[in-house]
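The instructor's notes for this session suggest beginning with a concrete chain rather than abstract definitions. Hand out the sequence below and ask the class to guess, before any prediction is shown, which regions might be ordered.
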Amino acid sequence: MSDAMAVMLAVGVWLGAWGAWPVPRWPAIAGMVLFLAVRRPVPFTLAAAALAAGLAASAWSGLSPPVPGTVSGWATVIRTPQSVQGGVRAEVRVDGHHLDAWAHGAVASRLGAVAAGEEVELGGRVGPLGPVSRRALLPRHIAGRLEVSTVGRVRDGSPASQAAALVRRTLVRGARPLGDDDRSLLLGVILGDDTDRSPALEDRFRQSGLSHLLAVSGENVAFILVLVGPLLRRLRLSARWALTMVVLAFFGLLTGWEPSVIRAAVMAALACTATVTGRPASTVRLLALAVAASILVDPLLVHALGFQLSVGATTGIAVLSGSIAERLGRLPVLRARLLREIVSVTIAAQVGVLPVALPVFGGVPVASLPANVLAVPVAGPLTMWGLGAGLLAGRLGPPADRLLHLPTAAMAGWLDGVAGWGAGLPLGQVGPVQAAGIALVVLLVGSLRWSWRWVRTGSTSPRGRS
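After discussion, reveal the predicted structure:
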């Protein structure tokens, strides 16, 4: 499959999932198998889009809210509980329904001690979600709200869930010597944990365009693979592929399978598989196939803001970063290759997220460009050191934990300092009007350059001289 056909497949699947038409699934699957066997990419794409539409329609029908009333029994905790608004919030599965569970008072601390994957006895009252909450929680398949009144026994989940819970608790325990903001930043970068995050910290990162560093994202998947890279390179190809799949699956479980992590994990799995099978593919093709595969597994991802931003940023990097780096190389100040790549990737990612960020946030801070150039090179080392040293600190305890986290504190302090500096820059935002103006200028300059090249080529050709 060519790059163009892969992109067409991703767009078709995305549109099908967004439309959510009640298309029968089995005829669509049969069509995909048939057209794949006879190598007909256009009919294959149409069948895949029909399948995505049918799967999305089924997912929507499964979001009907449970009958309001009291519930009591065993619940599986899907995401690690978070402390918010004076209480504890968790995502649980009860009787086949995903619920947004809230606990206050004495039961909040008991629910907060339960880890993702564990099962807990809950009692409370279930009801429908509000319109705003329903839109926000739709991508996570949450159908209702549970006001928890009692929390009883807790029992272990699967072995993989127990391992993930152990890692999370070890990291949290190891981060205790850090200051409040440094600890919140570290756990946000590694795990996407926003427990006890101060509004001031969140505001600094938002105004400087660095909010993506406070949550686990696709970048983290790359950092984790770099961390285990020395071990992977010692293995044979088949063993390397198997261990990579295990690392990706465990990291997804550890972080609660955030939408951006799903995109990055699937893309990394496809890249590893292509390498092992001796069929390397371009970044564009890998991204398109990852998007299509992710949506077919979970059609509601098309409504997840994190997934949209991740796809947009990665698309910008894949399509634009090379040409931007080539043009930046003509500037004396950006002759250094590493600096040129950092700047080009930052610009390309910001351009890629504009179509998503403009309607949702109203604009993108101009300060995000210099802030990301200064912050992103430190985010990777913070992730890798924070994970490795954090696990060791959690196991050893004091005083070793404080010593191990001295580099962590320095890197977290740098990120926070850059965020504060960027938030204070009087640069404003790139809003819809500014974005339209920039796009118009780019199109005009591109048209003029193409026209001049065409005139020069035409005038020097044999036919042009005659």
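Then share the key points. The two ends are 44 Å apart (CA to CA). The first strand starts at residue 69 and ends at 84.
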